[in-house]
Each structure stands twice: as C-alpha cells, then as structure tokens.
UniProtKB/TrEMBL annotation:
This is EKC/KEOPS complex subunit TPRKB. Gene3D superfamilies: CGI121/TPRKB. Keywords: Nucleus, tRNA processing. Belongs to the CGI121/TPRKB family.
Length: 184
C-alpha cells in the first residue's frame, strides 16, 4: 500500500474528557475481489476493523461523526455491539436495529468497494496488515464521491427530495444518527 492513501483522524467527542481521545485511520479500496473472505474474517474475529460499504457513505465526515459517537459510547461503557469497530458501523445507521445496521453498512459478500476504518492505528501498521489481506486497490479517499450511490443514501436515510437539494446533506444525515438515541 502506498504511503498517504490512508488518512489518520483525531477523535475527541468530549473535549473535556481525555479518556475519549482516540485515533481512527480510514482507507478506501476499489475493485475488491475477496469480500466474502473478508466478511468471514470480521465475523470470526480474525481482525478488528470496520469494513464499510462506501456506497452508502456520503463523505468521510459522516464516518467521523459515527466514530465519535462510537468512542463516546465506549468511554461510558454503553456499547450496543461487541466491539468499537462494530459500534462504528452501527453508529452509521439511522435506526436502532443492529442486524439491519450491519447488513446495510457492513461488508457484503458481493462488495467490490470497501471503506476500511481502524481505531488506534496511529502508525498505520494495522492498515498495512489489513491492506495485505484485501485483494483490491487502495485509492485516495477523494475517490469516495465516485463510489457513493446517492439513491441508496437517500433510501437508507429516508431523505426527501427537498432535503437532497439542501447544501448540507451530511449535516442532515448526522442529525439523524444522533437522533436515533432519543427516538423510541
């Protein structure tokens, strides 16, 4: 994997609580040919990474908002799932159904593109190891816009045509992610 293809982000959902400070490294892969094996590896616990369908991720900001939520939940011992990586995928969903969240946002056997997110990978070593397992091409995160399926994003987040004309669609999506904790 070429240097500079993955991005490291600094997360701190609560600036007054340093226990929540984490890092997350994100990388986009295209033309993935072994999605079925990768999905099995995640389910078997062979590696701790969030393998996300990039088709339903509008932009990296949405992933970072979900990652901040996951870190916050972990810091307060309120994980809904078994791991921080699974919590990230769950946090991308606007609903509270874990199975549906993992099915919608997690890797599928037929996935050809993949957004990989790994917590606690400041050095990039975990992403390098993960990249060796992926039969696909790592590409700059800027290519995410070429992979996104706007119709799928609209369907998953139940966005109206009026909302789709808004300037800040990501803000609307993040609002839906936050609101799920308060909806019954």
């Amino acid at each position: 994997m070429k240097a500079g293809l993955s991005r490291l982000y600094d997360l701190q959902p609560d600036p007054y609580d340093i226990t929540q400070h984490r890092f997350i490294r994100v990388c986009l892969f295209r033309d993935v040919k072994n999605a079925k094996e990768l999905g099995a590896g995640v389910r078997d616990g062979q590696f701790d990474a969030a393998l996300i369908r990039p088709e339903v991720v509008l932009e990296p900001f949405v992933v970072l908002a979900a990652a901040n939520r996951a870190v916050h939940q972990a810091a307060h011992n309120r994980l809904t799932t078994r791991s921080l990586s699974a919590e990230l995928i769950y946090s991308l969903s606007p609903n509270r159904n874990i199975t549906d969240s993992l099915r919608t946002f997690g890797i599928a056997d037929t996935s050809q593109n993949l957004l990989v997110a790994i917590f606690h990978d400041e050095s990039g070593e975990a992403m390098k190891k993960m990249a060796k397992l992926i039969d696909g091409k790592p590409v700059p995160l800027e290519e995410l816009g070429q992979v996104v399926d706007i119709r799928a994003v609209k369907r998953v987040y139940k966005l109206t045509d009026a909302q789709m004309t808004e300037e800040d669609i990501s803000g609307i999506i993040v609002s839906k992610l936050v609101a799920k904790d308060y909806m019954t």
